[in-house]
Amino acid sequence: MSPRAALLPLLLTLAAPAVAQTRHNTDAPIDFGADHIELQDRANRAVLSGNVAVKQAEMTLNAARMTVAYTGQVENGNPQVSRLDASGGVTVKRPDQIARSQFAVYDLNRRVITMLGAVRLTQGNNTVNGGRLTINLDSGRAVIDGSSVAGGSGSGSDAGTVTQAPGGRVTGTFSVPRRSN
Questions:
Q1: Which pLDDT value is given to residue 148?
Q2: pTM of the predicted model, to two decimals?
Q3: Domain 3-173: what homologous superfamily?
Q4: What are phi and psi of 73, to 5 degrees?
């Protein structure tokens, strides 16, 4: 095993705590705002565009455009959301970190956020860059890959233009605690 290959599990272990600090309340209601909304009831979805902001508990998700898929079931007067597909300058903020990418999918049933394209995860002075970031909101486990699947599954003018991390590798910077002499 090469020294570089031996470092990969260590880097993934170091990167995971950046997301694992707080458990997210995936049962909290989802509030949203956007410049424009188009309801497509027959397709059980809504398309939000322009300065889209979604908030669930302590987490916010911002993007230029978002498609909200719902099940068709209504609880307490609200449709049950199953998935959010975001594109265009996507930012996910939690109390202790910020993740940025070109695209993101929040699968509410699986409680997983997958971010694609030029991913940058920052917590304090620690930064990890890659092509794809998968965050399990129940466990806090994060997996960062160097390249992302090109071609995107969304529709629209920017589908299929996912940018990979430089050289298809995970890169980053970790801060080192100061030592007293």
A1: 59
A2: 0.76
A3: Lipopolysaccharide (LPS) transport protein A like domain (2.60.450.10)
A4: -85, 145
